[in-house]
Description:
The protein is an all-alpha fold.
Amino acid sequence: PPTPPTDPEPPTSPSPEPPTLPSSPLLPGLPSPGTGAGPSAASFAPPHRLPFTGTDALPLAALGLAAVLAGGTAVAATRRRAPRGT
């Protein structure tokens, strides 16, 4: 017959020491707002128009549509017609 499981043994060594925190701050001292050399938020003027970062896809879409229509026309023109028997 199977033997029942035994209780786990306690650990023989103590748990490791937790790491200590650094004595210096994690972040450097940051300048206070308004003391920087750059432009402030009050003097910033947004641009009148956003820059154009895309592409004009209309010619490419027109070329694709023309190719699909030309292919459909070619297939329709070359299909065999069933002869009409009387």
